[in-house]
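To whoever is on call:

I kicked off a structure prediction for a single chain this morning and the downstream step that reads the tokens threw a length-mismatch warning. I double-checked the sequence; it's 453 residues and nothing unusual in it as far as I can see. Pasting both halves so you can look.
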Amino acid sequence: MASYMKSLPTITTPASLQLWQWINAPLEYLHKYDRQCGDICAVTMSGSLNQAIMVSHPQTIQQLLTNDTKQFTAPGSINQILEPFLGQRGVTLLDGAEHRQRRQLLMPQFHGDKIRAYTQLICAVTKDLIAEWSIGETINLREQMQSISLSVILQAVFGLYKGERYDLIRDGLLKVLALIESPLNASFLLIPALQQDLGAWSPWGKFVRDRAALDRLIYREISDRRHNYDPNRSDILTLLIGAQDADGQEMTDTELHDELMTLLFAGHETTATAISWAIYWVNYLPEVKQKLLTELATIGTDRDPIAISKLPYLNAVCSETLRIYPVAMLTFPRITQETVTLQGYEIEPGRIVSGCIYLTHHREDLYPEPHLFKPERFLERQFSPYEYLPFGGGSRRCIGMALAQLELKLVLVEMLTHCQLELIGKLPVVPVRRGLTLGPKGGIEARVVSSIS
């Protein structure tokens, strides 16, 4: 029998149990599947109970991510579970030419001079937050880093600084995100059948009302900015209001709202989680912290943020942070357009296929002792974009990748430079599900030991 006629390895655990495991213990689920099936497997882990194929071999991921529109498509409609948070008209849920056009419009806002303009903002926001801490105070790193990342994204997207509107939108977004703070609450996101409004005191009912309140704030901001349009402003909302498609049509208020929600939702939650992990590892492993401090000492006191972001060991620490617990466990799903062969298995059209970022990042053949935090591995070799892909790849690679990487590096450096922290509580910290991402359980508590500004 030819190799392509082999039966695809399949997890036979009942679909409902697979879904429960995927929600409540995602890493245990992935390791179990990896032990049973290896680099390719059919799984059932969504509320729709449709079977999907998960792959983790770099060559297969390369095939998956470099054949968009040919063997595979990456339709936004496949991510309908995000609609309650993002709406239908943001870049994540758009398809085809419309998706490409919106992506081309947004990409320049997260690269080049735009990124460099954010460096002083990131450093200033971090210093201001540290200045609020008292020696001996216990802080939750996850919450504190969320404050930083939210401040950065609110300025980048809305051009909002401290003030009433800033506070209202920030607090409104945090209320909406509270729905998915725990694995249990994430069930409402991953199982659409649970999305029942049973009144203001029910979880979904509270979410619906909190979301409506946030929607009103954002639509009010859009209306005010349309009526007081200033083309000299550099924030993304101003860019989008002034943008026109190929037919000369401006974006509707709904399209603007959904794009802003997409950028807010994706642009701060994931970054805050990554920064929290980086600060944890640096303080958990003294030798890593000392190497970082030694490297920082080589550039003196007049520190250019862009030069800092290019330091090799700093880059290695941040890369290892995103490797060991990637914020996103899976790539954006693809759908087979034709019969394709993956690792010797024939896959029929219409099948959902995702690359498993987490399992690829934990391959022994790529990353010896993958469960150990070893930044040196990124100094010893360069990994391909199919071996290391914390921001996904192909036509759906994260638009905000450059900003997220810069923010991760600069916040970590500011934390090392201006304060000294001591981790407290039960260690080591373990990852748990936060919506679609992997975050530190309990948020990581630390004590402010001293200021070294």
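Update from on-call: the warning came from a stale cache, not from the record. Cleared it. Sanity check on the structure: The chain has a mean pLDDT of 85.
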